[in-house]
């Protein structure tokens, strides 16, 4: 009887750990996508900022 209870708890724990692993992997994927997106947006922002500075600088010279 005790062994049955331990077996049942073990199966429950195993399933919960598997579920948590799936959720953690999903969250990590979302975080990585957000980091990539943020890096791309920052790169575009600084590139556009530089281009605006170059354009602004060329207008002030002439």
TrEMBL record:
What is a single Pfam family found in this protein's UniProt entry?
A: KIP1
Recite the UniProt keywords alphabetically: Coiled coil
What is a GO molecular function of this protein? Answer: actin binding
Indicate the segments forming the NAB domain, all copies.
1-62
* InterPro entries in alphabetical order: NAB
Q: What is this protein called?
A: NAB domain-containing protein
* UniProt lineage: Eukaryota, Viridiplantae, Streptophyta, Embryophyta, Tracheophyta
């Amino acid at each position: 009887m005790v062994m049955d209870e331990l077996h049942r708890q073990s199966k429950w724990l195993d399933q919960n750990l598997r579920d948590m692993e799936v959720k953690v992997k999903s969250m990590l994927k979302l975080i990585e996508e957000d980091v990539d997106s943020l890096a791309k947006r920052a790169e575009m922002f600084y590139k556009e900022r530089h281009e605006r500075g170059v354009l602004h600088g060329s207008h002030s010279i002439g």
